[in-house]
Amino acid sequence: MKPLIVAATISTLAPSGAVESWWGVSAHRAIATAATTLLTPAARRRAVELLDGRSLTTIATWADDIRRSRPHTDPWHYVNIPVDEFRYDSATHCRRGCVIEALRSQIRVLERPSVDRRTRGEALRNVVHFVSDLHQPLHVGDRQDRGGNDVKVTLDASRRRGRDRTRNPGQPKEMPLHAVWDSGIFEAAGLTEAALVNAIGRELGSDPGRFQHGEVLDWARETHAIAGSAYPPAGTTRLDRGWVDAAVPIAVTQMAKAAARLAATLNHALDPGSRTGGR
Asked: Which of 263, 268, 267 is nearest to 132 (CA)?
């Protein structure tokens, strides 16, 4: 696998619409950076053309950036399926749109060379973002709490049993559980964007193809399967260092899957002659 290199300034996004938060900026960018290293040369060239010279990394949060000006796209970032059992029904779960159908639709647009360049460019921006969103556990699983947005917890990652207090992420922070999974655990663990890229690279290893199987609904089903474990034990409202240390590997694995699947999707759409597995 090629070395993963990143240099970026991380900004914060204000909450918008029905979901108060989403995979943080650094997570989206890290996934896009890792996916770029897995693109074929032809797919990478075509992506740059469709993005007017920009990289996947720099447009990774475009779909979030336009949410306020295009409020109809807000439901495209998630799907609320009860965590107890995966029974997806588009008429029930996707009445106003959802990440599963939005991603499927945008992939179809991207795969059609006859579509005008601007429309395909927007589809590419959406695909980059929605593949990432689909792998955040609380963008798919729900306990009638808007994907954990109504669950308030205190992230106090300086706490650990014993004497290990070598990492101090600052004062305890009260936040929605959804926001913890978007970015809180990474901040608490001291993981910068560059560190996330490296962690994804280690998880992908030399065989990213092991993640490049199935299609959008299969990926949603996989994410949903771990959504229940994204919630702390009943009655727990304070998340300590031990909880964070257990959550980070789960999040990194999800990000690695997103990067591998995004690359396979783009190779298939932009370089049909490639054979990279997936879809």
From this structure: 263
Whether pLDDT at 175 is above 60: yes
pLDDT category at 16 given cuts 50, 70, 90 is: very low
- The pLDDT of residue 159 is above 50: no
Q: Which residues contact 206 (CB under 8 A, 6 or more apart)?
A: 1
Could you give the CA distance from residue 101 to residue 74 in angstroms, rounded to a whole number?
Answer: 13
pLDDT of residue 2: 37
- Among residues 223, 238, 155, which one has the least CA distance to residue 189? 155
Q: How many CA atoms lie within 13 A of 268 on its CB side?
A: 18
At 188, list the tokens: 């608490």
Q: Which residues are registered as beta bridge partners of 2? A: none
Dist CA 69 CA 258 (whole Å): 27
**N residues, the chain:** 279
* pTM, 2 dp: 0.87
Q: Judging by DSSP bridges, how do beta strands 238-240 and 152-156 pair with one another?
A: parallel
Name the nearest CA neighbour of 31 among 233, 228, 277, 211. Answer: 211
Helix, strand, or coil (residue 239): strand
Residue 172 above 50 pLDDT? yes
Three-class secondary structure assignment of 258-274: HHHHHHHHHHHHHCCCC
